[in-house]
Amino acid sequence: MLAKQAIRVLGSKLARTRGRKVRRFIAAELLSHSTLYCNAVKSLNKIESFPSQFPSYLAGTKLTEDQEARVQSTLQEFLIYLIFLLDLSILTFGMVNYNMYFFTKVMSQLFLESTSYINGINFNSINSMANFWEFVEGPMLRNIYWKEWYNGKPLYPGQSYIFYESILLGRPQVRQLRVRNNTCSVNEYFKDLIKDCYNEYSFHNEDQSPFGLKSGSPHSEYLQIVKIIAYFTDSKDQNMENFAIVHLVEIQGITNKNGMTTNKWKYSAPNHEFELWHWGKVGTYRNGGYIIELEKNKPATVKIIKYLKSKLWLDHGTRAVFVDFSVYNANVNLFCAIRLLVEFPASGGAVTSSEIYTVKLLRYVSKFDYFLAVCEVIFCVFIFNYVIQEGVELYCRKLSYFKRFWNFLDFSIVLLSIVAIFFNIYRTIKVNALLLNLLKNSNSYPNLYFLAYWQNRYNIIIAFTVFIAWIKIFKYISFNMTMTQLATTLSRCAKAILGFAVMFFIVFFGYAQLGYLIFGTQVDGFHTFGSCIFTQFRIILGDFNFSEIEEANRILGPIYFITFVFCLFFVLLNVFLAIINDTYSEVKDDKSLENVDFDIYEVLKRRYKNLLYKINPNMFPPVAHPTPGNKNAKESQTALQHDSERRLEFNLPMPMNMPHLHESNMPTLTNATL
């Protein structure tokens, strides 16, 4: 009864006691009444027998059975998740290595920075059609076809090696996209002066009809033959030029004096199996067009290029020219798909861009690759298990499943992983098919750009997957005080930040519109409204060239810059920081957040100490027990109290053979005493 009375009174007193000293408080109170120690220690070792008195004050102390089960389940789940994260990290780092960077850098320097011998033109400095032909005849052909060593001795016969190490796969391809004439409206004041009008590129304005040869076309000598054919076939085609070229190719099969058929002037339909379109700087383009496959040797290719240049293959209707080719380096087992794009906007001039994708398409070659294959199997097993778990939970909770942030992360990881698995299978099948076709017909263009492009998108999917997977670790460490304060701070200041964001973006977009209208025609960072937004973020971060807007407008440029920095940086940005700082201060002063369900760090620390005690029990030396006749009873009782505190901290059982004081010397147990 006394033990129950002590427990009951201690429970009421414990309800007013918080913090990590709960155990020491209980031990001190019980030791002050040593006659109750032996009867109450069992109840304290099973403190969950009275959870209704103080269930919420046990964080960092002895946990109830439910809490212990939760801790055990959380630790097991965390350990399994760490194994999954380790496996995913190995897969992601196995896809990318430093050789990819150097391979990409070498190709970039070779094809983008090499200059011509005449005017020093490189790819990035092309600004006209004449510059384009100079680049093609100079740096491009010179760097694609490597036939000899630096001392003049020939390389491997029959093959083209780039930088002596990378082999050219198949043939390079040049592709042109055009627009039709009279696709734009000419003002009536200039109709007598301007007869032709070619609008900017769009799918609607694209020209897909054959176009004629210029400057003394060799097809003119066959034009009379085609006209006779048209007369006898009663053709009503009004465009005799297009009719002639179609019949030259499809009916007569006539070749010109250089042995080349006229299909270089005929449109080839897009192949939707490989790619849909290409997003350039000026427009978005189909994957069809007027296609030319260059030869595998330099003399024949030079002959083709000179022929196309002399016959004006590029003219007013040209809006984009693509140069595609692929190389393979067996030393590092890497493919590199290179696409050079020159856009000719309706305003005139030329805009260049390039895409160089270095990817590893042949996955299983070395021993490490087979180790990655094992990791892929383990990854699939994990994803299959997570699909079942998340599927059951989604079925049970329906749409309420997405109300929890961690469930949303789990769903994202599973979804992205499934997409990655199916793409990996598809990629393997396609690579094998393309390489077999390349081996059978090495004199054609292999469309490895398609696979390299989607391999790059696959890498992006995996990158987001592993990023979300790392973020999910916060789920398991969110039980400690720091994470609780962080989450509470963000939740409490969310409304204030939302209101601030409305005010911030009103001012921000107003300045973006102002900069676009003032500097849009002169400064590259303001040439579109989207670029204005990114430029202003750069101004906030201090990465901006002030002289550009000052040269564009010596009066409005400085005014725009100074007012923007003052309003956005010095005022609004500091208001944003003040909102977070004030909320964080309130959260730190909130006493109700001092206790959490359990601190995973404290749990791991306690279990670590418990393991040390099991390994070396002598870390708790025996102490003298107080007796009525002992002169050092006070010192012994203090040592016993310290020993009990350490055992409670280690979550270890206490000895049941501890002697107690005589009842005559025991103080009376009252509420005031406790």
Folded structure, characterized:
- This protein is an alpha+beta fold and 674 residues long.
- The chain folds into 4 domains: 130 residues, no CATH class; 138 residues; 139 residues, no CATH class; 107 residues, Helix Hairpins.
- Helix content is 53%, strand content 8%.
- It has 20 helices and 8 strands.
- The strands form 2 sheets. Strands 1, 2, 5, 6, 7 and 8 form a 6-stranded antiparallel beta sheet that branches. It has a two-stranded antiparallel ribbon with strand order 3-4.
- The protein is globular.
- The N terminus and C terminus are likely disordered.
Supply database-style keywords.
disordered N terminus; alpha+beta; single chain; six-stranded antiparallel sheet; two-stranded antiparallel sheet; globular; 4 domains; 20 helices; 674 residues
Order of helices and strands: HHHHHHEEHHEEEHEEEHHHHHHHHHHH
Q: How is the biggest beta sheet arranged? A: 6 strands, antiparallel
Shape: globular
**Helicity range of the residues?**
40-55%
Number of strands: 8
Radius of gyration: 39 Å
Strand content: 5-15%
- Please state the average pLDDT score: 76
